[in-house]
Amino acid sequence: MKKYPVTKPYFSQEEKDLISNALDSGWVAQGPNVTEFEKQTAYHEGINEGVATTSCTTALHLAMVTEGLSNGMDAIAPAFTFVATTNAIVATGATPILVDIHRDTFNIDTDKLNELIEKQYVQENGKLKNKNTGNTLWGIVPVHEFGLCCDIYKVNMLAEKYNLKVVEDAACALGAKIGETHQGAFGNISCVSFHPRKSITTGEGGMVFTDDAKLAKRMRELRTHGSTVSADARDKGKGFLLPEFNEAGFNYRMTDVQGAMGLAQVKKLDYIIEEKRKGANNYNRLIASKLPEFITPIEPKGYFHTYQSYVCMLNDDVLNLPDLQVGGDYRNILLQKLEDKGIATRQGTHAVHMLGYYKNKFGYKSEDYPNAYACDHLSITLPLYVGMTEDDQEYIVDTIRNTIDEM
Predict the structure, then answer these.
(1) What is the CB-side half-sphere exposure of residue 21 using CA atoms within 13 A?
(2) Which of 7, 9, 56, 208 is deepest in the core (most CB within 10 A)?
(3) Cβ pair 324, 114 in contact under 8 A
(4) Distance between CA atoms of 126 and 280, rounded to whole angstroms?
């Protein structure tokens, strides 16, 4: 039986060689490889500064703390996103406030964002205050979901209108663009992930992008417990003296072994994205001709989708699904049958308001964010990675067709 993972990293001998060099050097904690990886990745995205971290979650937390998010504040995030987005907000002591998404792009609905701000907040002494809790609205954490940028220009316009901060969760979106502008170059801090499901990987890992050198300097200090001098800088000077620590920080440092892997991976980024875009186009063609039960992902005009994940929606009209609960059950049975046939699939991501912690703490109901709830129940991620052939994709689509016919 053929087996297809939902994704797999693309490696060559170069990763092995650079990792071996890092091991041979004896310098395996954060050091020169991480510094060079930061420079090359930021350069690729057209951004001045990159600050490597242990994950995108810690990148988000670091960015939020640096931008002043803390207890007594609210931060707005989309209701359909991986839980790391809202968990990072919670880690600062702030409160996540959810807003619904568009079903076709999976990204934040900026009209609903504006409605939420107008309805739930009131101006007091130049700040927006939550009418129910008194919390100050700090800002917005939009997500570029699955490799497609959200309508970040509209988000920025609303942020300017209401004097709010913006930190972009671009975990899935390294290399994504609107026009010729990469994620991270829209005037805000952005954070990406190097988890193995992402376009390039360092095992675990993340990075914060910014054009603000002062913000980057502070983030580099905070990621090293608040140290005013990095370890590699100390090594070049009086390494026997410990640096000054003027504030309590964190240990969010990427290892130099990971940095070495990243240096090899970032060289492959454009090729990986090109191959995934070809695969996505092929899926679009096959599904259009064979699977009317599926709605394929869209790429709005002027946008550049990296297809970190190829996420479809079940067409509830074609399937005559009476409600989303039935649709979710149908989707789960289909995914299990495909798993049994050697084809790994996944739910796109989850509706945060239906996860135990958030549902129990805030009393959310499924209908509070209907599009997020629909995407939670009807989304399907198909296998897509470098090395897949058109024959592989045709086999996958034909297997789905046959499985649906058997159900």
Answers:
(1) 13
(2) 208
(3) no
(4) 47
